[in-house]
Amino acid sequence: MDAMPKWADVVLVPVVSLLLAAIISAIVFVAVGQNPWDALKLMAYGAVGTSDFLGYTLFYATNFIFTGLAVAVAFHASLFNIGGEGQVLLGGLGAAIVCLYVPLPHWSLALIAGATAAAIFGALWVVIPAYLQARRGSHIVITTIMFNFMASGLLIFFLSGPMKPIGEMQVATAVFPAATHLPSLHDVAQMFGSEMFGRSPVNISIFLALIACVGVWALIWHTRLGYEIRSFGKSESAAKYAGISAVNITMVALLISGGLAGLMAVNNTMGINSPQLVDNAAGGAGFIGIAVALMGRNHPVGIVIAALLFGALYQGGAELSAATSIPVQIVVVIQALVIMFTGALDEMVRAPIEKLFLRSQRAGE
Amino acid sequence: DGHSAGPAIIYDLGGKFDKSFNESAFNGAQRWAEENGSEFAEFEITADAQREQAIRRFAEDGNNPIVMAGFSWATALGTAAVDYPDTKFVIIDMVVDAPNVRSVVFNEHEGSFLVGMMAAEASETDVVSFVGGMDIPLIRRFACGYAQGALAANPDATVIANMTGTTPSAWNDPVKGSELTLSQISQGSDVVFAAAGGTGIGVLQTAADEGILSIGVDANQNYLHPGQVLTSMMKRVDNAVYESFAAGDMVEPGFNVMGIGNGGVGYALDEFNAELVSAEMQEMVDAAAASITAGDLTVHDYMSDETCPVLEF
Amino acid sequence: MSDIAPAIELVGISKAFGPVQANKDISIRVMPGTIHGIIGENGAGKSTLMSILYGFYKADAGEVFISGQKTEIPDSQAAIAAGIGMVFQHFKLVKNFSVLENVVLGAEDGALLRPSLAKARKQLKSLATEYELNVDPDAIIEDIGVGMQQRVEILKALYRQADILILDEPTGVLTPAEADQLFRILGRLKEEGKTIILITHKLREIMDITDTVSVMRRGEMMATVKTSDTNPADLAERMVGRKVLLRVDKVPAQPKDVVLDVRDLNITDDKGVHRLKGVSFQVRAGEILGIAGVSGNGQSELLEVLGGYEKATGEILLNGDPIDLTGAYSDGQSRRARGIAHVPEDRQHEGLIMDFTAWENTAFGYHHDPKYQRNGLLMDNAAILKDAQEKMGRFDVRPPNPLLAAKNFSGGNQQKIVVAREIERDPDLLLVGQPTRGVDIGAIEFIHQQIVALRDQGKAILLVSVELEEIMGLSDRIAVMFDGQIMGERLPDQTNEKELGLLMAGMKDGEAA
Amino acid sequence: MDFFTFVQLGDASVRMAIPLLLACLAGLFSERAGIFDIGLEGKMLAAAFLSAAVSFASGNVWLGLLAGIGISVLLSVIHGLASITFKGNQLISGVAINFFAAGLTVVIAQGWFAQGGRTPSLPNDARFNGLDFPGALTRFRDKMQASPGMQFYSEFVSGHSILVYLGLLTVPLSWWILYRTRFGLRLRAVGEAPEAVDTAGISVVRLRFAAVAICGILCGIAGAYLSTAVQAGFTKDMTANRGFIALAALIFAKWRPWHALGACLLFSLFFAIDIQFPRLELRVVWIMVLLIGSGVAMTAYALRKDKIDVIVLGGLSLVLALVALLAWRGEMSDEIGAIAALFETVRVPSQLIQSLPYLFVVIVLAGFVGKAIPPRAGGQPYVKER
Ligand SMILES: Nc1ncnc2c1ncn2[C@@H]1O[C@H](COP(=O)(O)OP(=O)(O)OP(=O)(O)O)[C@@H](O)[C@H]1O
Ligand SMILES: Nc1ncnc2c1ncn2[C@@H]1O[C@H](COP(=O)(O)OP(=O)(O)OP(=O)(O)O)[C@@H](O)[C@H]1O
Ligand SMILES: [Mg+2]
Ligand SMILES: [Mg+2]
Questions:
Q1: What is the per-residue pLDDT across A273-299, written as a single tens digit (0 to 9) for each?
Q2: Predicted model pTM
Q3: What Pfam families does UniProt report for this protein, alphabetically (chain D) (predicted)?
Q4: Number of structural domains in chain D
Q5: Contact between chains at A274 and B46 (C-beta distance less than 8 A)
Q6: C-alpha dihedral sign at A322, A323, A328, A334
């Protein structure tokens, strides 16, 4: 028998972990002279206080859904794709090339073309790490970290050279043609006569993210490929026995993962108010994806919830830093704590809970 | 609601206390606040993604005018400004064409020309150098002006110019600044001009350590290493901010150039570098400044055609 | 006798691993200068008990007395100090260290290595002459054979001056000759007054060299008796809790056409070791070919080649058509498509995904089967679930709940899930590796019946097992493997365990006869 | 290039190698004991901050160094708790520590000094300054005119901060500890076979914590070196990926101290070249030979393997060939023909030079420079009881 009911694993453990992260975060707030309760209120207001703020929260959450899914798909194959950051950048490059150099008459076409290009570029960026992992056993974590740095170099090369408009100072491409600009949720709301989401950049890519969630769910639990990915992830030796090719699954799982990460670029290049690709387009979303996947237990539903939480944290943190003297890096600290407690210190939380359940089971017998 | 919450300033990524550009902007705001006993709102962004959000935040809070220091604000401001027609915006170092935006740019090439002359005069090796921050047209404008000045003072001089990088992190990489300086020293340079934001701190430090002269930028940085900083190329961002704050919501939109003539750029002379600047050096530089103001001397502006006649990048 | 304190006395030892109660209130006494055997089925808790004595695990309850003194053993350091040495079932050696370094590790004399190593080198030399335990002190562990590695483990214990030596299934990896030598050494140690505890599954070893024997079952100590007062049948009964039927009921085989024809199969692994050396044999429809041998002599590799997850050179014909051994169709999926089903040796690491539910495991390996698909894109999970339910019913898997994760079934029931999946494919050829390892006697009977029934349907079956009894009972023909070669073939009713044992030890066909 | 340029290149390499080397040896101790640590970066960063802050506040750089070591060890202990005590995922713990340090240094720096997340500049006597050996020249201008021997002595040998010399000393020291002491034997064993260590009666937990603590100390020195010797103060993210490059160097060095020195010097040479030759130019023909050559080699290798190798390596070769052709086309103007364009030079993008260490790591990992086998028990917690 399992020592713990499923709900405890899926809900109780993450909630306790989050609470612990919150407690340490509170201590950090106190240490920098901020009342944690006030900070929490400010952050909560900043995250959902107005429909604009909510829009920003959703915008960030969209990013994190993509990267969370990316990490999760690889996790199911027991592979740790820490290269989301780089894949997002390359995805951005793909989207930018399509939007800038291919005449696209309408945003719907731009969405399809941009998303395809972003996914392909993101996937391509993980080909070599995936190949090296599959074929030569080079550790995917180290290779993808290296590819993150190289992605940043490559992107800067393009954005400060070939793709930079003459006379511009910013390391960025030109602003994309208006036809490629994705409708924001505000535009959508306006069709219904609402002013929801105001000027926030949340846009229809959020639906793309949700479609991706459904896609990943179907892939992982309802297709042969997903079955093979999970088998390989749970037991490499058993997969070998079943005739599941380690090389193929490693490659395919990572390519899908890279493609999903690349897709995020649609949101943060074509979706933002001045659609363009800037040099630090990923903004740490690749790493946040790790926390999102961990907290979401690698399930799309969990990932959406975790992504919303991190979106709120990100947006709330930005507002907090705008209202107080606390730098926005406080978000990074909280994020680190969440990763630490939900990821690395999982056992610390889980073991006592498991013991409690075991004891009550024994007592019940 | 129309009620004004006072002026606001938003700094660029380098941060308020970069001892340079942003700090200079802060000083201007601070001076205005002290003189008027008023307060102003301020914000230091830490990521590009925050730009538009920050502008909107202040605009919605009713701050007026909203000053932003740095060219990187242009895109965000261009998008946001139209939504707040009643708010006045001031952008420094870049031009944004909108009815409620005042764009302030400086003739950095002119100021750089002056310190270039001083550098060549002070050099014993006839090699002077330049460390730029991020490799962008604006910084090349500094470099080009500096090289022209150096060659004007000493046609035999050699000018070495290096950029720290091509990303915003180049504004904040004192380690690399220091290494670049050492490399330049090895090529014979004995005066180094840093136009590199926070990176410049490393340049000035290394120059001081190695016993060569350095030239600060934006704010007066002479005090950082007394007797070892030849001068500072003053870019009176503080004045621009001060004036904008003083004008309040009456800030005049449009294009505003600050050059030598109107005190926008210049070189610093104070007790910390008095011994380094000889009378004839000062005379020569002041003469050049006068002829630039008079229009007798034109310093080539890199940004006018993205070329520099005397320097290759 | 009662005035001599026992060398070891364990009182009321209990130990749980999470929900598994591995040891339940166990008490045992071992007199000094004796060899004490411990037997019990897989998972009975033998290793756990000894590991507690050695300080590797901490008991939940119970006390330990060494030579009559109550002794706390919080860690192995304390056990070593109390004069206990242990050779684990799975050796605890640092593979890329030299023999010398392994011996010295943890028994160094000072903060600097040099003096310790020099001293150990001298000591090893004298131990080698004393006990015939010759090992090259500078050899790297991963370069020497398992027999040698075991010597190193024994030397480690002796170097630490152990008076009490625990050996956990030491002969599992040894040839009979090596085992004999080990027992000679144990005999000499006993003469010197050392106390030895020997865990083994082999009743013959118990009868041959132990003075007393304890039987464990399901975490409990069933009995401790004098070896001279018991016999193998009695021990077996105590071990499993009821009379043991060692023979399988079956009618004589009626072999038909050759289904599997293996010709000159060779494997060289990535370390350059020749694993299979020209293996050739045939299996006909309607017969069971049993392959006997000490584990590690190439049987696993043979199954892996046939199962499609190891490459080899040579030729394999299935129903007369060659099988792809290295190319694009040399994988498990292609093998299954050709009608080869495979009950792997290691159900936990190969046959099942322990974290998957029983129903998911039912499709494992056959997830491309059209009957499990809803359409070209999606799998039909409902169909798999239904299929699983039926199979579990037919094979009496307990509990018959397909939603339970595989890891939550007992070993025997896990094995039934695997056997059900493979047999129900109606294969032309069934590969079976160690079908009853760690399975209780009831399940053994059931599984054996299923295998025989499949044979009677006219299928070809290749059985690999290290249990000679199983081979003898189930096979229609027996081939013996040693060192990657087939040493000879016998018919079960025309041979005996002794003859097979000699073949397993590498005697040539003629010599063994 | 004259001799002094070489001396300078060497000098810069050594200077840049020290933080890499210290971090690399830190990783070496940790990973040799079986604890993977991608949190080297974060520990260095935290140490860089705190040592600068304490040096500034106290005016005593040694106190600063101690504080840096202290915080780095503290983070190590947290990593130890997560990965040793609670048997958590070591990679995730490392990621968390990197984030934690990156965020908290800025938050606290802002809270204490309100200078945009950096510390104030350290005055000279609150830094580790260069040690000038007797008779050594100190100024570049003097050195340039000196004899080669003097140049070597003054530039390469003399003038580094004490931490450089200490850092270099840690190499033989680490080697000696690992291979000549009881502690070293056990440490190496616990990374290979913790169960062997455990059954030998040695505490796996204690050993691993000791290793992790040593890792913390070395990272602490590395961080302090950056902010108090190389620089005069802390700036945000000042470690600039050195922790990751150190990890890569560790793999390249196959977890051996002397090799680590070599690997770090090699990597820091890339940095030195980037700084020393900001405008590196290369003949088009060499680019073509290099890129197309390696493309051909890869394709040849792939053709002897499977379909997947052909797709991946063939595709990569095509990309390389394309880059080579672009470089060539780019130079081909009206006046000069196709052949002459081959002998033109093109500027190597600085991003490429900066990416070279990372690229190099990938090539190393690919196993083309020799297979690197990590400690066998590395990355996995030692679990006795499930
Ligand atoms: N480290 C462990 N963590 C959790 N459970 C364990 C552990 N070791 C053993 N067990 C469980 O404890 C029980 C007893 O195992 P033990 O290894 O003592 O059996 P054994 O009698 O030695 O069996 P075998 O003959 O297979 O060696 C089994 O159910 C086993 O699964
Ligand atoms: N030593 C033991 N003491 C108590 N319970 C045990 C022991 N070993 C196993 N169990 C229980 O029996 C269940 C089956 O585990 P295990 O595979 O060890 O069983 P088994 O007795 O060998 O069964 P099978 O005969 O089917 O192989 C476990 O879930 C556990 O709860
Ligand atoms: Mg056992
Ligand atoms: Mg069992």
A1: 889 998 888 888 998 999 899 889 999
A2: 0.88
A3: BPD_transp_2
A4: 2
A5: no
A6: negative
